[in-house]
Amino acid sequence: MAVDESLTKIVEKTVKRAKWRGLSVVEVGDPVLRKKCARYEGQISPQIFEKLIYSMRSCMLSKPGVGLAAPQVGLPFSFAIMEDHVAGARRKGIGAEENLREEGRMEKGRKDEREFSEFPFLVAINPSYEPVTSKKAYFYEGCLSLPGFQAVVGRYLDIEARWEDEKGEEHTKKLHGWPARIFQHETDHLSGTLYFDKCITRSFASNDNCEKFLFPYSISRAKKELGFSLKMKNDED
Ligand SMILES: [Zn+2]
């Protein structure tokens, strides 16, 4: 598809403004978050697209967040960025789980329920996913478009992720645990679905209360205190 000059101009203005103020993230209630995004086929010129991705990444890292989808910056097109790192783990040369224990963020002998692992920066264009098995993992997740809150969402533990890169090349990769959760959350954004649509509503909590009841990285206490189970109505989907 040819470059859409007027769209490119709008995006160019937005990224110029973002140099000083940063990009603003669209919050829940804005219709753009509920639209099915159009396939991205190079409607924005490659130079401006590169600048947009740079601004989106700066915005995501500064919040901080681990993913940002195009509709969250007001663009109804199918692409998203994702990235998460295990703070300090690489520097220390140890695994993610060991690092969480070392930092006192996980109790000894307890399994890392997030199944955390490194997720290098990814620009996923026209992404989609298929579950590899029906097994789901339950954990708290938040969204930059619903700032200040989190809720427990069941996500496929293993998925086959598909996406295109900036050159239009197709990629397929099996993702597990935390990176699989991020990929599902961001890809869902592109069909107008928010994590809130899939969460256990009774687990909904402010970030502050999550710190109080969720840490050290277990939802068992939250389950008990808030009175929810891990069975969800859309589990059979
Ligand atoms: Zn989100």
Shape annotation: globular
Order of helices and strands: HHEEHHEEEEEHHEHH
Largest sheet: 5 strands, antiparallel
Instruction: Indicate the structural class.
Output: alpha+beta
Which ions and ligands are bound to the chains?
zinc ion
Q: What is the CA-CA span between the terminal residues? A: 34 Å
What characteristics describe this protein?
5-stranded antiparallel sheet, 237 residues, Peptide Deformylase, binds zinc ion, alpha+beta
Overview of the molecule:
The radius of gyration is 18 Å and the shape is globular. The chain has eight helices and eight strands; from the N terminus they run H-H-E-E-H-H-E-E-E-E-E-H-H-E-H-H. It is of the alpha+beta class and 237 residues long. The model has no long low-confidence stretch (mean pLDDT 88). A five-stranded antiparallel sheet has the order 1-2-3-6-7. A three-stranded antiparallel sheet has the order 4-5-8. The chain has helices spanning 5-21, 46-62, 89-92, 96-102, 178-189, 195-198, 207-214, 220-226, and strands at 67-69, 79-84, 119-131, 136-142, 149-156, 158-164, 170-176, 205-206. 32% of the residues lie in helices and 22% in strands. It has one domain (5-226): Peptide deformylase (Peptide Deformylase, Alpha-Beta Complex), CATH 3.90.45.10. A hairpin with a 6-residue loop joins strand 4 (136-142) and strand 5 (149-156). The protein starts with a helix and ends in an 11-residue tail after the last helix. The site of zinc ion has 5 residues, from helix 5.
